[in-house]
Amino acid sequence: MDRIIKKKKWTPLRIFWLTSAGALLVVILWMIFLRDNRSRLLVDRDQLTIVAVEQGKFKEFIPVDGVVLPRNTVYIDAVQGGIVEAVYVEDGAMLKKGDPILKLANANMELSYMDQETRMYDAINNLANTRISMEQLHYTRQKEIAALNYEIDKVKTDFNRKKQFYADKLISEREYEDAKRDYEYNLRQLEITLNLRKLDSISGVTQRAQISSSMERMYNNLGLLRRNMDNMTIKAPVDGKLSSFIVEIGQTKNAGEHLGQIDMQDGLKLRANIDERYISRVFKGQSAELESGGILYPLTINKIYTDVTRGSFQVDLFFEGDEPAGLKRGQTLAVRIVFSGEADALIVRRGGFFHETGGNWIYVVDPEEKFAVKRNIRLGRQNTNNYEVLEGLEAGEKVIVSSYEYFNQKDKLVFR
């Protein structure tokens, strides 16, 4: 007798398909909710520079190149133009103040000098003659007064005698009046002559002052002419070493043309170019330092040239104390411009990463050092060795500081 066989619901095939569907669903859910979707890149760990973030001492400074120059320099220019007639010293010579350096010749200037000198001497002689004429007039007035006094004395005696005679009726009235008239006339002449002498004296004071002033001016002009001629021989204005002096006999030099300079032997200075971004942070008296031969030499900014050229400005730095031995003019030295003293700070070593990130983020290595992930940070001050970390990192964490040029800003770097 036949019996009904019930069909099985959980056949092996059915179980297989249900299991596969469940596994696929789990995979889909994992991919959607649990999978790490961050972009990643496989990199060779050996090609990376990994350092630890540290808590240490930090001093902010920037490195610059300083060129050695004399502390004080006096420039030598041609006051008058001319042809180089003689050269007395060579470049690099040690000079004393007043030592001749070279001589210029200028025929037109010499002729002009002689002509002006002649005219000035003529003017001086004319003024001197005018002064002599004034003195002669003074003595002429004195002579006239003396003569009048003599004449008055005679006519007064004659008048007094005739006055008595006229009273005694010994002479006529006409003779008396003639004697009186002569006496009064001479008195009037004396009065006029005395007034003229007074007027001459008053005007003479002003005129003598003007003559003296004019003659002094003439002599000063003559002195200036002589100095201009003396300037044809260029002399050392100060003691020092002659430099940048390249002059040959027969060359033509124009008035005001630079001939060379004298480097005074009173010390050295450094002239450095600083990026214009720091112009507001640099001030006169600011500290700097130079390391040479294992010794740290302190410097101070003495002068700031505020003109910005090609993105930088210049400063002069003076040594505070001893200078390194053997420094030569034109030598370039590494100098640090200091912005702050040493202080405790969280620091990370400088590296190529900064050029790609601008200090806004960095790759932080996981504790097992199998991968590194991107993390936002904030950096502060910097020097040649380190950056100051303000936010985003902790002491002991390891970060990648080498260049990120080929990482394409991936979120995760996986080491292999």
What features would you describe in this structure?
The structure is a single chain. By secondary structure, this protein is of the alpha+beta class. The protein folds into four domains: 38-58 and 343-415, Beta Barrel (conserved putative lor/sdh protein from methanococcus maripaludis s2 fold); 62-71 and 267-338, Beta Barrel (Elongation Factor Tu (Ef-tu), domain 3), CATH 2.40.30.170; 79-105 and 237-261, OB fold (Dihydrolipoamide Acetyltransferase, E2P) (Beta Barrel); 107-230, Orthogonal Bundle (Helix Hairpins), CATH 1.10.287. The protein has helices at 12-34, 107-167, 173-230, 353-357, and strands at residues 40-43, 50-52, 54-58, 61-70, 73-77, 82-87, 94-95, 100-105, 233-235, 240-243, 252-253, 258-263, 268-275, 287-292, 295-309, 312-319, 332-338, 343-349, 361-365, 371-376, 378-382, 386-391, 398-400, 412-415. It is rod-shaped and about 200 Å long. The two termini are 72 Å apart. The model has no long low-confidence stretch (mean pLDDT 85).
The CATH architecture designation of the largest domain is Orthogonal Bundle
Order of strands across the main sheet: 1-24-20-19-23-2
Q: Would you count the extended β strands for me? A: 24
The assigned structural class equals alpha+beta
Looking at CATH, which topology of the largest domain would you report? Answer: Helix Hairpins
> What is the CATH C level class of the largest domain, in words?
Mainly Alpha
Q: Which blocks of ≥5 consecutive residues have pLDDT under 50?
A: none
Main sheet characteristics: 6 strands, mixed
| H/I helix tally | 4
